Amino acid sequence: MAGPPPSLLRSALRLLFHLLPFAQSRSPSPPLLPGPAASFSVRDFGAAGDGRCYDTAAIQDAIDACHAHAAAAAAAPGCTCRVAFPPGKYLTATVRLKSGVVLDIQNGATVLGGTEIRDYPPESERWYVILAEGARDVGITGDGAVDGQGLRFVRRFDEKKNMMVSWNKTGACLGDECRPRLIGFLGCTNVRVWNISLNQPAYWCLHIVRCLNTFIHDVSIYGDFNTPNNDGIDIDGSNCTVITRCMIDTGDDAICTKTYTGPLYNLTATDCWIRTKSLAIKLGSQSWFDFRGLVFDNITIVDSHRGLGVQIRDGGSVNDITFSNIKITSRYYDPSWWGRAEPIYITTCPRKRWSKEGTVSNICFINITATSENGVFLSGSEGGLLRNLRFSNVNVTYKRWTSYEGGLVDYRPGCQGLVNHSMAGIIMEHIKGLEIKNVNMRWAEEQSRQWDNLLDFRPSTVNGISFHDFRSDLYSR
Ligand SMILES: *[C@@H]1O[C@H](CO)[C@@H](O)[C@H](O)[C@H]1NC(C)=O
Ligand SMILES: *[C@@H]1O[C@H](CO)[C@@H](O)[C@H](O)[C@H]1NC(C)=O
Ligand SMILES: *[C@@H]1O[C@H](CO)[C@@H](O)[C@H](O)[C@H]1NC(C)=O
Ligand SMILES: *[C@@H]1O[C@H](CO)[C@@H](O)[C@H](O)[C@H]1NC(C)=O
Ligand SMILES: *[C@@H]1O[C@H](CO)[C@@H](O)[C@H](O)[C@H]1NC(C)=O
Ligand SMILES: *[C@@H]1O[C@H](CO)[C@@H](O)[C@H](O)[C@H]1NC(C)=O
Ligand SMILES: *[C@@H]1O[C@H](CO)[C@@H](O)[C@H](O)[C@H]1NC(C)=O
Ligand SMILES: *[C@@H]1O[C@H](CO)[C@@H](O)[C@H](O)[C@H]1NC(C)=O
């Protein structure tokens, strides 16, 4: 059922390497323009790299020259030109990345995003430090860093959740959602971001919107743990995306797929390490169109508020998703952050009374090990059932190590909000078809009285469950 068979995963990845123009091993026909790719240094265009003067014009001039060079060489499809950033700190307002250009931010170089509203275009949907729109064959690499100076956007530091500045001047965005993102690829084809650190985004970090063929690998993302909305990678309405060997340590959602601008097909994320005060891997909540063919494999999630999550609110449907070989520890944090320590969390419900109900079908969890302060939460809605869920080789250890109160289920955003509820190993609502195969639950004996039920469901809303090799044991330390 869900997704391509796991044995195909590696070969699918290899295939994608071949299809992308950046592939290490190119197609047999030799490139039309041999010789080293052109490189333009921002220093030669007048960048100071002192971290104080704005280098915006120099960087943009280098990109424009590089773009013109790549366009002249357009006979070689996918031929790119590099803009080099030697060691130094390059303060910049928004720069536009153009077709055929790869930013080569070298070891010891940092691109610093401006912290003034005048550093960004008038329209808030273009508030990015680096923005590529409608471009082809573009990328960012080089062992250096892009830094959004997110801490400069904190109005009041708070261990629970920082209060952030708001650029709510135009009314186009509201409250704490009014800050610039770090990097955006909008409507691009053949995007590659690799071997780079992305640090302290003021808002979302790496945003991929309506793109085709995106390859993100060997990327480290660090965001402040107490800052809201500093998501790691947000992929919206894009097809054929590969994310691999990434390390994401941030306050808000780490890898987040959305269908706000269009459907999202064929994404794989593998070999990543994640820590977040929010959801590590998420589908939603913006979910107007369909999600199909997503594979998440070999991922380690530590100390996160939630592990794997599907959060459908706007009527889109989710199909053929596989989560495999994943290790999770999930714990409570302050309830001002969405999440109640669920290792696995699937909800679909209408955001507003008038929203459409989305459905979730063919989701497979295989080889999952979790240690968690709360149980699994699976909740559809009356007209938006969860269908054909499969859990296979799943071990969950239930124990408590923080002092936050339990006994709440979290339907946010929208729907019923936070609701008092008894505690259970798995809570199930509005499901048709659930197979539980080789699932082991282990409970810390001295804390076992905190749990009301092993499983919690009503036959009137949950239909067609089967159990094979199901165990539940107490353990003592
Ligand atoms: C699950 O784990 C088993 C044992 O380690 C392994 O043989 C199998 O290939 C894994 N399944 C997937 C889908 O990765
Ligand atoms: C946004 O700005 C408008 C106009 O300045 C103000 O009325 C409103 O309260 C602000 N909203 C938030 C959530 O900051
Ligand atoms: C990217 O970084 C990885 C790990 O740091 C390193 O092994 C690899 O050689 C780098 N690749 C390139 C193309 O620089
Ligand atoms: C992704 O594929 C779907 C289905 O073919 C298509 O409707 C959509 O326009 C594609 N999106 C992009 C950005 O290519
Ligand atoms: C997604 O992958 C499937 C299976 O490889 C393929 O048949 C389909 O055309 C792809 N869809 C898009 C929109 O890339
Ligand atoms: C899983 O990912 C880690 C990096 O997080 C990597 O070191 C390891 O080799 C991967 N395992 C497999 C089986 O690919
Ligand atoms: C689950 O626990 C059993 C028994 O300890 C062990 O044999 C199995 O490998 C574990 N599976 C996973 C996916 O952690
Ligand atoms: C849950 O119950 C407690 C005690 O009965 C009450 O104080 C609290 O307001 C309730 N919370 C919600 C979200 O209903």
SSE class: mainly beta
CATH topology of the domain at 253-477: Pectate Lyase C-like
Distance between the termini: 39 Å
Beta-strand content bin: over 45%
Using the coordinates above, name the CATH class of the domain at 253-477: Mainly Beta
| Distinct bound molecules | 2-acetamido-2-deoxy-beta-D-glucopyranose
Helix content: under 10%
- Rounded mean pLDDT is 91
> Globular, elongated, flat, extended or rod-shaped: what is the shape?
elongated
The number of helical runs is 2
Poorly predicted regions are 1-35
Strand count, sense and closure of the main sheet? 19 strands, parallel
| DSSP, total strands | 35
Reported CATH architecture of the domain at 253-477: 3 Solenoid
Full CATH superfamily name of the domain at 253-477: Single-stranded right-handed beta-helix, Pectin lyase-like
Radius of gyration: 23 Å
Describe this structure in words.
The structure is a single chain. The chain has 477 residues and is mostly beta strands. It has a domain at 253-477: Pectate Lyase C-like, CATH 2.160.20. Helices cover 6% and strands 50% of the residues. The protein contains 2 helices and 35 strands. It has helices at residues 7-19, 56-72, and strands at residues 39-41, 50-54, 81-85, 88-92, 95-97, 101-105, 109-113, 128-133, 136-141, 145-147, 154-156, 163-164, 181-186, 189-199, 206-209, 212-222, 233-236, 239-244, 247-250, 255-259, 264-276, 279-287, 291-304, 306-312, 318-330, 344-348, 360-372, 376-379, 386-398, 408-410, 418-420, 424-429, 431-444, 453-456, 462-475. It has a 19-stranded parallel sheet that branches. A 12-stranded parallel sheet has the order 5-8-13-15-17-20-22-24-26-28-32-34. The longest helix is centred in the N-terminal third of the chain and has 17 residues, at 56-72. It is elongated, with a radius of gyration of 23 Å. The model is unreliable at 1-35 (pLDDT under 50). The protein binds 2-acetamido-2-deoxy-beta-D-glucopyranose (8 copies). Residues 6, 324-325, 366-367, 393 line the site of one 2-acetamido-2-deoxy-beta-D-glucopyranose (NAG). Residues 40-103 form the Rhamnogalacturonase A/B/Epimerase-like pectate lyase domain. InterPro entries: GH28_Enzymes, Glyco_hydro_28, Pectin_lyas_fold, Pectin_lyase_fold/virulence, RHGA/B-epi-like_pectate_lyase. Keywords: Glycosidase, Hydrolase, Signal. GO terms for molecular function: polygalacturonase activity. This is Rhamnogalacturonase A/B/Epimerase-like pectate lyase domain-containing protein.
